[in-house]
From TrEMBL:
<keyword id="KW-0442">Lipid degradation</keyword>
<feature type="active site" description="Nucleophile">
    <location>
        <position position="60"/>
    </location>
</feature>
<feature type="short sequence motif" description="DGA/G">
    <location>
        <begin position="169"/>
        <end position="171"/>
    </location>
</feature>
<feature type="active site" description="Proton acceptor">
    <location>
        <position position="169"/>
    </location>
</feature>
<protein>
    <recommendedName>
        <fullName>PNPLA domain-containing protein</fullName>
    </recommendedName>
</protein>
<feature type="short sequence motif" description="GXSXG">
    <location>
        <begin position="58"/>
        <end position="62"/>
    </location>
</feature>
<feature type="domain" description="PNPLA">
    <location>
        <begin position="23"/>
        <end position="182"/>
    </location>
</feature>
<dbReference type="GO" id="GO:0005737">
    <property type="term" value="C:cytoplasm"/>
</dbReference>
<dbReference type="GO" id="GO:0019433">
    <property type="term" value="P:triglyceride catabolic process"/>
</dbReference>
<dbReference type="InterPro" id="IPR033562">
    <property type="entry name" value="PLPL"/>
</dbReference>
<dbReference type="InterPro" id="IPR016035">
    <property type="entry name" value="Acyl_Trfase/lysoPLipase"/>
</dbReference>
<keyword id="KW-0378">Hydrolase</keyword>
<keyword id="KW-0443">Lipid metabolism</keyword>
<dbReference type="GO" id="GO:0055088">
    <property type="term" value="P:lipid homeostasis"/>
</dbReference>
<dbReference type="InterPro" id="IPR002641">
    <property type="entry name" value="PNPLA_dom"/>
</dbReference>
<dbReference type="GO" id="GO:0016020">
    <property type="term" value="C:membrane"/>
</dbReference>
<dbReference type="GO" id="GO:0004806">
    <property type="term" value="F:triacylglycerol lipase activity"/>
</dbReference>
Amino acid sequence: PSRNALRIAADPPWLAHCSPWNISFAGCGFRSVYYLGAVTSILERAAHLVYGASKICGASSGCLVAAALTVGLPIGEKARKHHLSIFHPTFSLQRTVRNSLQEKLPADAHRRASGRLCVSLTRMSDGSNVLVSHFDSREELIQVLMCSCFFPVYCGLIPPSYRGQLYMDGALSNNMPLLEHPNTITMAPFCSESDISPKDGAWTAISVHCNNLNIQVTAGNVRRIYTSFLPPAPEVRVAQPYLTLFYPKTDSHFFQCLIHNIVPKLDSMF
């Protein structure tokens, strides 16, 4: 079917009868460009899946995607024009991330994000997980995002702070915020049990569960994890999201009902 045939009008009648749902993005380093293709496709075909979500969550690089969606940054336009900014493999980690956030976030970003964006942080003092959903200022929002993206040593030796405490990468304590909520739609760029994720050809019963993310042990995932830290050439990473397919993994009646009302068959999105 054509792209127009897959489009759904905003706020369809059945949406009012759905239970509230969340969307959660796993942290994945440079693999976050996977989300550009996935989110762009959803926004083009079923934007209410994103705009109707109660909370949009993220850990590490996943929180940047979540923040972009909650404050209204044009992810789809960026992907089509290849202006990937903080998602591009050539960015220089913390300093460039901060500069990009300072440039791109609107003045009222903290008000748009408060109550809807949920960011996973790991407290340095005891390693416990902290979920932040309210932001007093634009600068505080930027501080929280920087904390969630700080991978020790790889990003530097001095961790950023938020409200007087030091924090590090949220994926180190909770890589899938709000997973415990039954109506959370999970997304990860690894072959996993997440609702939306890539699929490897060979099935394996071996998986690793770490910090709320269950990843299958496959050759493809070994490569994906490796390129999370050492990304391939930019032109390869830019093109790859548009080759992504969607595979709903959950058996929940909620998610299957939601998908049934969005597109006739999820695999036909590409």
